[in-house]
Amino acid sequence: MPPQLRTLPPSWGPSAPPPAPAAPTPPAARPTTLDARHFLIPALEALCGRRPASQLAKTFAPPAVSALAGAVTKGRTRLGRYRLCRVSSDAAELAGTLHMPTRTRAFAARVERQGDRWRCTEFHLLP
Which residues are CB-contacts of 12 (< 8 A; sequence separation ≥ 6)? Predict the structure, then answer.
């Protein structure tokens, strides 16, 4: 036997005014967590030539984009070990290694919070 539904009396009727709309709730702030892979994976793709460096303009500052564009290599580049060090609540530094086809190179990068987003402001490949 299916369950029986009961009807509820209306909370307001023609003689009562409609309820006031609830105050809008403010949008929740986006979390500003920092994940190093958000910057390192696109940088690797640009270094391999699989992604044009110009696509990085939203998350990388122009000096970082030009540094990546100037270091494009043919072949597979793999990410080695890396470290993220929080310098302050609005800045962090990345350091690690990239295994390129002919050699292993070190990199250093600086990431800064700009508003509610993180942006890579510096990227350097060491010789």
Answer: 18, 19
